[in-house]
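User: For a teaching handout, I'd like to show students what a predicted protein-ligand complex looks like in token form. I'll give you the sequence and the SMILES for fe (ii) ion. Please answer with just the structure.
Assistant: Understood, here is the input followed by the structure.
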Amino acid sequence: MYQDCRGLEITAASQEAVEAFDETIVSYLSINPSAGPNLKATLDADPQMPLANVMKSYFFMLMATKPLQERAQKAAAEARVLAEGANQRERLHIEAAENWSHGRKRAAIAAWEAILVENPLDVLALRLAHHGHFYEGDGQNLRDTVTRRLYAWTPDTPGYGYVKGMQAFGYEETHDYDSAHRAGVEAVEHIAENPWAIHAVAHVHEMRDEPDAGIAWIRENEPGWTTANNFRYHVWWHRMLMHLDRAEYDEVLRLYDEDLWDPESDEYLDLVNDAAVLLRLELHDQDVGDRWLALAEKCKGHTHDQALAFIDVHHAISLAAPGNGDEQSLLEAMRSYAESQGDDNAQITEAMGLPLARALVAHRAGDFDAVVETLLPIRYHLHKLGGSHAQRDLFNMVLIDSALKSNRINVAKMLVSERLGRLPNNLWTRAKAEAAGLAA
Ligand SMILES: [Fe+2]
């Protein structure tokens, strides 16, 4: 029996394989494109290593597309064959991979949490539990799953800076911005190449409506996040939100063309970022030209994915924009998936994804009454879709826009009033306050 760099027992054929797996975890935690090659090196060193086979399944699931989900199932089945020689922790990982790849995400989260009770230093289980809670919209567990392990960690434990980065994001999503900022800065002091921690602090500045400080933070820390895989686009996206907050629209469009848009990328987070910033630009009354066309073309290929309702609702935005009706195929695919499948995401699709997608399509069609009628009753439940407060804020902006455009002035007043309470100096909010007849 070998041990990993945190002293956890690991079933492997050689120390070389264990070290390659440790490297795989570091590249996963630093969101570095070397994660795939490092996993391949691990499997080359030991094709029968249970956790390496599990990791293959996890990596496919993290890509969140239908074809890769099928490959994740296959990898989990291959890992299952190795369960007999695996230890209890590894068997729970195999169980998690099977559950996740078959759409039982909550059971996968339960397996990661069970691993962490006995093995609080299992940073792979921790990162995946954090990811799982994020897309469950469970902010408290996003924070607490990290904090309840910290009794076992010291600043000298390998990877401590990544764990503090996760904790920072959990604090941010539970509105504890001071603690989030402190944990995020500490994380980056420990590990400079730490995109998740840098990103967590960017969220803090976004939520506090501090675009100057946020842009400065993102720029100062460029060496620590531009090394990331496509996740680096998401950090660009955060910077663009802050330029929007400063009404620097030309800069947002320039960043879209030069730094955000990747014609080669088909990754879900990129498609989500692109849709979310284009629609925000339009909500700021900016013309985005023909940028929707190329984005919608990419999203068309994901019409039948239904990997996460959160992703589908963004595809609905992009597919509806060119006005050729392609969004109807997506709505139909979501409807039939919600009715026919029993997995966790199907339930969320039915309860939240489908109504929200329909509302976003109605917004594009100019049916603002329908948007208000659909979103007003469910807006406090939309966190169940997962994603961050910053990402879901788009839906609130669409609702405010629709309340104003459908002349529901009292509804607009209350929504804008809420927003002013949180963001008293935000330019967009103040413009909407004026439109609603509020003294901002
Ligand atoms: Fe983010």
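For the handout, you might add this sentence: The first strand starts at residue 2 and ends at 3.
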